[in-house]
Amino acid sequence: MRIAVAADGGGGGVLRPLAEDGTPTGPARQAADLVAEIAARERSDAPRWVWPATARLYPALLRAGVRVARCHDLELVETLLLGHAGRYGEPRAVRAAWARLRGEPVPPDPPPPRAEPAQASLFDDDAPGADAPADDIEQVVAVHAAQQRAIAALEGFALLAAAESAGSLVAAELGHDGLPWSAAEHDALLTGLLGPRPSGGLRPRRLQALADRINAAFAADGRGHVNPDSPAQIVKAFAAVGRPVASTRAHVLKRVDHPAVPLLLEYKELARLHTAYGWGWLDTWVRGGRFRPEYVVGGVVSGRWATNGGGALQIPRVLRRAVVADPGWRLVVADAAQLEPRVLAALAGDRAFAAAAAHGDLYAALSPAFGPERPERPGGAAGSPQGSRRDPETLGPREKAKLALLSAMYGGGTGEGVHLLGVLKSRFPDAFEYVEAAARAGENGHLVRSRLGRTCPPPSAGWRELTAAADDEADGADGAQDGAGGRRQANAAQALRGRGRFTRNFVVQATAADWALALLGSLRRRLTALGPPRLVFFQHDEVIVHTPAELAEEVTAAVHAAAEEARRLLFGDTSVVFPMEVAAVDRYSDAK
User: How far is CA 313 from CA 115, 309, 316, 539, in A?
Assistant: First the structure.
């Protein structure tokens, strides 16, 4: 059963029951208290709610203590369908979709809902969505019916639409429930690294001490004052002492022999922590012992999520000690091991590759194809990241397998990397050809799709103009080209390679995003059955569940079962396994 929802922005709204294909099965019904009506129907019927956007309606339900099991998010599904049709980026709101159905001018999308204030009351003037215009139930019903017709014609798309919509519920709940966060622990970590909290816009004590030492190092060479927060001043300072640098990036500075370099590197690392996750971040994002990020479902073209500030997708390791379970509770931290290579194995159907991916460590299973183990060499252990940066010859077979797979999925490969790609191509031809075909499609300006049908954006008009002009010049060239023509050819070739690298990776990364959404939906359902455990964090292929300590084992089992269900939903009876590395801990930092 489905029920369409149209909110009037004042606490009320209209509900209308629908069949699975979107056909109305009853009259529209006015509800003076929309939240109470949804709560009652959720208890009695557990329908799939059809509404314009989860991000605009669901936070109000959560603040009222109402959670729903299923929904169909019209905006997110419209985005997926527009992408599939090669119209990525067009307005996706219900009013825009309604106008397209009627052949009318398409209005722009409204601005995204405002973030939930600290003390928001239901549908008050400060609540998210309170400033949005009222929804129209006729438009909601018509757009949903049109989407259902389109979905029915696309294989696998029904699962994608359901998973994306389930993800929207998870995202809202993550922001509402929040990740347990100790402000005291965070403050202690910052104080230990930076010194006491400064006031008046001054640098923390440790940063100021480093800035003074950096200036002293340059002063020894006759250079005046240097602001370490100014890349331009740093570049000038190095030029003045006879050690010119192209930028202040860490890998550039590490090649410079000067006493200021280690000080600058330490300063940059600590300054980045202070700016991105310092006391200002703590004041803004942590309240009531919880970090409450604002996730954006499908915020990246591959289907990965983004955030509206807060940096939830890249919590520094040094701050993970501040993520602490409540007394009597535990954090079950789980992440998918080597997810994208396993996705490629399942997508390609390469039997040898799939057989290797049926093992726990995929890279180790592939390593026999890349030669015997090498003895450790001076300057870096075989297979270590340091060795791989200095000389691919120092890599062991496991790291060679990893390098070859990453080169195949992300493009590139020079030196021995080219040889490793050749090994991958000869031993696992179907896997290699899968990503090569995606790259060729991209270079030809075509669209590529994930397993469930998530579609890459089309190339820009500028890309098409550049590559078409270069092709025309190449076809009409008589002898050597002039300098301008050569540059256009080079720019076009670079654009083609860039598009190929993008589509090569898209088919894998977008399918990995599909898998992660299926995992989230399955795990959420299983946690609901357990009762108090809550999903509190998600990052690409990693989840954290906050659970009473006595349920940690059951939550761990639920994680493994959800991963298996996601594998089966996307890939059927593939032999490829998707193992989850799970740890039940008191602090996030203890998980790895």
Answer: 18, 10, 10, 5
